[in-house]
Amino acid sequence: MQRTRTTLWLAGLALLCAPPGFANNEAVNDNDTPFELEPVVTTTTGQARLLSREPASVSRLEQDEIERVAHTHPSELLFRVPGSWITRNSGQEHLTAIRSPVLSGPGACGAFQFLEDGIPIRAAGFCNVNALFEINMEQAAGLEVVRGPANALYGSNALHGTINVFSRTPEQSPRQQGFLEAGPDDYYRTGLSGSDGERWRVSALLTEDGGWRDDSGVSQQKINARHHGALAGGELQWLFSGSWLDQDTAGYLQGRDAYRDNPRENQNPEAYRKAEAQRLAARWDRVLPSGNHLSITPYFRRQEMEFLQHFLPGQPLEENGQISLGLINRWRGTIGGGELTLGADLEFTEAWLSQYQDGEVEGDNDFLRETRPPGGHYDYAVDARQFALYGQHEQPLSERLALEGGLRIESIEYDYRTLLPPGNLREDGEPCGMGGCLYTRPEDRRDRFTTTTANLGLTLAVSEWHSLFGRLAQGYRAPQATELYRLQSGQTVADLEPEELDSVEIGSRGRLGEGRYELVAYYMEKDNFIYRDAEGFNISNGATRHRGLELDLSHPLGDQWSIALNASHARHTWAFDRRDGSPIRRGDEVDQAPRTLGSARLLWSPSPGRQLELGADYVGSHYLEAANEHRYHGHTIFALRGRQQLTGPWWLHARLRNLTDRPYAERADHAFGNYRYFPGRGRSLFLMLEYRP
C-alpha cells in the first residue's frame, strides 16, 4: 500500500514537470464529432470537457432527466448513477453509498464530497450525513457524480465519491417556470424559477408533506439565486443558496420483517429534526492578456441543526452549527501543448456542538440511569483551518493518447475547547457511579493532519467511436470533529489517522450505433478505517477492500423508443480481523453492501409534447451486520412516469411510484439483537401541473 502511494506521488510530480507533448489537446481529432460522447463534464477540470477525454468515471444527469424524475427524495434520482445508492431513512434523511457500503456513524459521511457549483457545501471536518437535503437538487440544471477518489482539485472527503450539483444560470431554458404538485398523505409542492435571460435567475421550492408514516410530516423550503455581471475586465457571478427543514422523524421499525406488517407505524413520535443552511459565493473569472485564465471565488456559509436522538437511551438533544469563510484560487494556462491548473484553497471555520439530556433515562435499568445522567453531555467549540496547494496537468502525448496527473498537499488543523468540565463526569463535575459516565469530554487540544495525494490518468482513442481510459488515484478524509472530541467512557484521547484510499480503474466508453456505453472495472484499498470498538473507543486501525464492475448503457429503439440501464457488481470486504464486540473476519463482506445494484428505464416519446417512462430500481441481497449472520433479501421497485402537454405552455405530469405495491425496506440492519428497518412506501401517485412558456 505504501509503495503504491509513493509511486503515485512521484508519477504525479513527474507529470507536472513533463516536457511538451506532441500535439495540442484540441488536435486529438480534427473532426471532433466521433468523440462528442455526451454529456460534457466539468467537475474534474472546472471547465467543459468531452467525456471521451476524461480519465475518471464521471456520470452526468441533465436538467431534462431531473425534471422527468421529479424526485421527492434524492434516492429516486441517484439510482441512475452506476454504483450509487442513496438510502432513504425518514423524511429527507438519507445515507450515501458510492463504490462503497452504505456508510453510517458520526464521521462516515466524510467519505463523500458534496459540492454546489463546484464549491463544498460544508467544511471538511464537519460533514452532515444528510448533506443532500441542504441542496436544491429538484431545480438543478444538472449534476455530476465522480465515482471513486476525485483529482487534485478536491481534497479531504473526496474519497469514495463526489456529487456536484449545478444551479440554473440566467440564460438556461426555460426562462420562466412554475408548477403545483399534489400527492397522497397531504403532500404538496410548488416551485418557481424566473430569469431575465442574461443577468439574474431565482429558483424557489416549497414542500409540505404530511408524511406517509405516523407523525412524520416534513416542511421544507429551498432557494437559489444567481446574478451575472462584469468586474475589472472579468465575469463576476454571485451565487446564493438556502434551505430550511422542519420534520417530524419516524424511527426504525423493529422485529424480523416488520416493514411488511405495519409500515406506517412510528415507534418514536416524539422525534424531530430542524436544520437550515445558507451559502453565498462570488466567482470572478478573467481571461488574462496572456490567454491564461484566472478564477477567484470567496465564499461564506452557515449551518445550524437540532435533532432529538431518539435512538439513544435518555433521548438527548443535539444542537450543532458552523460558520465558514473560504477562498478558492485557480490559474489555468496552456504549457507545452498541455493544460495546467494550479490552485490554492484557504478556509476558516467556527463550529460548535452540544448534547443535552432532559431528565433521567426511563425504565428500571439502574446502569443506564447512572451512566447516562441528565444535563449536558458535550458542549464544545472547534476552530478549524484548512489550506491546500495543488496542480493538475493534462498533456497530450500523440493525436490519440493523453496523460493527466496531479498533486495536492493539504493541511487541516482543529483547535478544540470544551465548555463543560473535561473528563468522564456529569455536567456539574461530579463522577457517575457504576464505573463512570458513558460520555467523556477531552481536555482542550489541537490536532493537525497534513496529507499529500496524487492521481495519474490515461485516455486512448482506439477508434473513431471508442476510447479507453485508466487511472490511479489516491483519496483521503481527515477525522471528523465528532470522531475526535465526542468520546465515551475510558477514552480520553482519540489518536486517529486520516483514512486513506488507493484506487485503480480501467474502462472503455464510446458509441454503439446511435447509443452510448461505459464499462469500468475498479479496485480500491482503504487503510486507517475509523470505527468504534467494543469498548466504545474511536480507533483507526481498520481496513477494507473494494472491487467491482460498472456498466452504463443507453440506446434508442427506433424513432420513439429508447432504453437506458446501469448496473454494478461489487464486493466490499473487510481487510482486517477484530475479535471483540461484533467480530470482523478478514475476507467477510462489509455490512450494508449489496453485491448488485441497478436501474433500467424504457422511454416512449411519440411526440415532443408526450413522454412515458417505465423504470425499475434494483437492490441486491446484503448482510446487515459485520458478523455476516443476518441478511436482507433485496428488492426491485417499479415506477411509471409520464408527462403530456395540455395546451400552450401548460403540462401535466404523473408519477406512480412502487407500481406493484411491493413491501420492502429502504434500509435494513441488525443491531442490539434485533432486526431494524426503514420501511418503503407503498404504491403512491403524484400529479403535477406545470407552466412552461
UniProtKB/TrEMBL annotation:
Keyword line: Cell outer membrane, Ion transport, Iron, Iron transport, Membrane, Receptor, Signal, TonB box, Transmembrane, Transmembrane beta strand, Transport
Record flagged with keyword Signal: yes
Keyword Disulfide bond among record annotations: no
Main location: membrane
Name of the featured protein: TonB-dependent receptor
InterPro entries: Beta-barrel_TonB, Beta-barrel_TonB_sf, Plug_dom, Plug_dom_sf, TonB-dep_rcpt-like
Protein topology in the membrane: Multi-pass membrane protein
